[in-house]
Structures are given as structure tokens and as C-alpha cells.
Amino acid sequence: MKYKKTQVIIVGSGPAGLLLSQLLHNEGISSIIVDRQSRERIEGRVRAGVLEWGSVQALEEAKIGERMHREGLPHEGFDLAFDGEFHRIDVGGLTGKKVMVYGQTELTMDLIAQRLEQGCEIVFSAGDVQPTDVTSNTPKIQYTKDGETVEIEGDYITGCDGFHGVCRQTIPSTVLKTYEKVYPFGWLGVLVEKPPVSDELIYANHQRGFALCSMRSKTRSRYYIQCPLTDNVEDWSDQRFWDELSLRVGPDVARNLETGDSFEKSIAPLRSFVAEPMRYGNMFLAGDAAHIVPPTGAKGLNLAIADIRVLSRGLIEHYKKSNNHYLERYSDICLKRVWKVERFSWFMSTMLHQFPEFSAFEKRMQRAEFDHIQGSETASSSIAENYVGLPLEM
Ligand code: FAD
Ligand code: DHB
């Protein structure tokens, strides 16, 4: 067995784990990151696209925002559409703030490159990762790599290992309480090297199902449509996808749609999930390891960044000032905001999708929700303030 030591062991090399490592490094605190996937797999995953301004500022403060500012697209509004009727949420006008369109893939690549350049150890393709002794003062993880078993001892373990990770699973069921809602459909997403159909994002509810027009740059578009969970990507030729998207966004938008060969196509399930508490002994959960939101409000990545802002502060105050106030309150501070963001993501998802089980009454409720937002600046403001990101109160 090989032994290593560090201050903070980070399980998971997604945005949560990488950002935490960067923020700790900036304050001279050591960490080792361990991920079960290869660097290529991690950098190849296509996921989120929208950053709240608070997330943008956190990335700036972490000194990782240079390419994001050069290549990202600030947005001050987006469209909601209902059966072909459009209502723009004037995010800039209603809140004075904006969001940044910048792919999670790019952010992950920026973070991995910078962390490695600064000498951080990131163990990719680790096998059988297992936290142990998490309630002791010397929590550890064990994993295998190149046929050898390795043990890392640290002061803390941070479980940034996503929804299917191992850290949350080590918390006894007598301690952990979970809340979950699984939605009866998925999102089929494609990436295409064509200019976006619109300057701003469009979230559309149509009788045939939800559709989202998004982008990664001025020349690269990202589109999603709601699909049955039983569908496979092979069921969806590019032509079938474009035909379906065109129907759902309506002729006025479809007229400007530039179609082409997609170079990524995947189906993601939709889920709401919260695990409480987000700390067990000297192990902290952050990001998707602790909570999942359906993607309709563009919140998952932003929630992960918010957790890391709280956790990094707690760890930095602990190491620099021997102050454990924020570590002790970590779970409470995060969960208060997590539940509000869960609410918004659930609300947007409920309003904008076709639910097979919905009665005629519930369908009318969805329409009434849209009509209310369309006719009320207060309702539009509520959506806008959630979309740009609720304040992080610490
Ligand atoms: P992850 O990115 O999941 O990273 C976890 C890491 O842990 C992975 O690298 C994984 O390999 C590793 N790991 C897992 N198990 C183990 C193990 N046993 N041992 C070691 N390592 C392990 N969010 C937004 O904010 N805005 C959006 O617009 C948005 N759109 C989305 C669209 C789609 C289609 C999807 C699927 C998600 C979207 N999200 C969005 C959500 C966002 O992508 C996630 O919330 C975000 O990736 C969470 O980051 P994380 O670091 O917590 O977890
Ligand atoms: C994207 C994903 C989302 O879930 C969302 O709400 C907005 C944009 C995207 O991948 O571009």
C-alpha cells in the first residue's frame, strides 16, 4: 500500500471539486483530487451552459475567469414561450444583473489546466474509491491505481463526486435524510456548429413537449427537447430532431434555425433531490453529491459553485484563523438556499413540460401560470431574480 497526506481530500474532479481545490490553493492550503473517470471523459462531458453573475464573480475571485470573460456571452434576458406565444423576461431591466453563457465543459477544462499547471495532484481513473474513518480526526480515502492500493490521509474529505458518487453513500441512513422527485421524461440535447437561432435563450412549452434553444458561442448552438425516458439517442436522427424542434418552437423561430450534423447527442433524466445534512463527521458534501435540480432553471452548476463558496470560506477560516464558525454552519447555510433553488427549478420544470399524468385542469394551471407571468411585472421579476441567482447569505 502507498500512503499520501494532504490537508483536504477532494473526491470528484467536476466543477465543485476543481473550484474548491483552486480556492484553497490560492490561500496556501493543500488538496489532492481523486476522480474515477479519465481526464478525457471529464473534459468531454457536455452539460450546463449558464452561469449566474454570483458564479461569475466567484470564478473571477478564484482567478480562473480570464477565458470566460473573453469568450463567454453576457445575456440580459431570455424568452418563455407557450404554444407559440412569447414573453421576454427582461433580466437586466428587472434586476440590474445579467448571466453569462459559458459552457461547463470549457470551465472544467480551464480549471483542470490551471490546477495541473500549479502543481496540484489530480488522480484520474482511480478505482474503488472509498472514504474511511470520516468521523475521526484523520479521515482517509483508499483507491486503486495501476494495480496498487493507495491511501490518502487528510484533515477533511469533501465529497464533490456527483449524484452517483460514493461519499454520500457512506453516511448512515440513520443520519441522512433524502428527498426526491423523479420526472417522467428526459432531455435530448444536441450540439451543432451553427449560429444560434436567437440571440437569447428560448424556453418553450408546446403541446408536443418542452424545447430549449441555447448556445455555447456565436457559432455553436445547443438545443434540447423533452423526450420519453424510454427513448435512445439512436431513435433520434438529426433530421428527426430538427423537425421536432421546429414544431415546438413554432414557425417564426424555426424559419431562422440553421440545422446541420450534430456532434454531440445525449439524453439526461430529470430529477429533484436533496440530502440532509451536507456534513457527516469531517466529510462535507458539495454540488450534485448533495442535491440535484432538473435543468430547466439552469441551476445545478450554480448551486455547486455556491456550496463551494461557503465551504472554501469555512476551510480557509479554519486554517487561517482557527475559526470553525462557517464549517459548523456549512450545511445549514447551504441548505437554506438549496431549497429555494429547488423550488425555482421545480416550478420552471412544472410550468414548461408536458406531463403524461396531468389532467385537463393541471394543463390549464400551466397556461394560467404563463398568462400570469406575461401580465405581471412582479411575477416576471420573481423569475428574473431567481434566474440571475439568489443572494448567498453567509
Ligand atoms: P459533477 O460535475 O457530476 O462532478 C462529479 C465528479 O465526481 C465527476 O467527475 C465524476 O467522475 C466523479 N465521481 C463520481 N463518482 C466518483 C467516485 N466514486 N470516486 C471518485 N470520483 C467520482 N447546471 C447549471 O447550473 N446550468 C445549466 O445550464 C445546466 N444545464 C445542464 C444540462 C444538462 C443536460 C445536465 C445533465 C446538467 C445540467 N446542469 C446545469 C447541471 C450541472 O451540470 C451539474 O449540477 C454540475 O455538473 C455539478 O457539478 P459537480 O462538480 O457537483 O458534479
Ligand atoms: C443550458 C442548459 C440548461 O439547463 C438551461 O436551463 C439553459 C441552458 C445549456 O446547456 O445551454
What do you see in this structure?
The protein has 394 residues and is an alpha/beta fold. The protein has a domain at 2-76 and 98-179 and 271-353: FAD/NAD(P)-binding domain, CATH 3.50.50. It is built from twelve helices and 21 strands. Strands 7-6-15-16-17-14-18-21 form an eight-stranded mixed beta sheet. Helix 1 (15-26) links the parallel strand 2 (8-11) and strand 3 (31-34). Helix 1 packs parallel to helix 6, helix 1 (15-26) packs parallel to helix 9 (300-321) and helix 11 (360-375) crosses helix 12 (377-388). The longest helix is centred in the last third of the chain and has 28 residues, at 325-352. It binds flavin-adenine dinucleotide and 3,4-dihydroxybenzoic acid (DHB). 3,4-dihydroxybenzoic acid is lined by residues 48-50, 201, 214, 222, 295-296, 298.
Keywords:
FAD/NAD(P)-binding domain; alpha/beta; binds flavin-adenine dinucleotide; binds 3,4-dihydroxybenzoic acid; globular
Entry summary:
By secondary structure, the protein is of the alpha/beta class. It has helices at 15-26, 39-44, 53-61, 66-71, 91-95, 104-117, 238-249, 251-254, 300-321, 325-352, 360-375, 377-388; strands at residues 2-5, 8-11, 31-34, 50-51, 73-75, 78-82, 85-89, 99-101, 121-123, 127-132, 140-145, 148-153, 156-159, 177-192, 201-206, 209-215, 221-227, 262-276, 279-280, 283-285, 291-292.
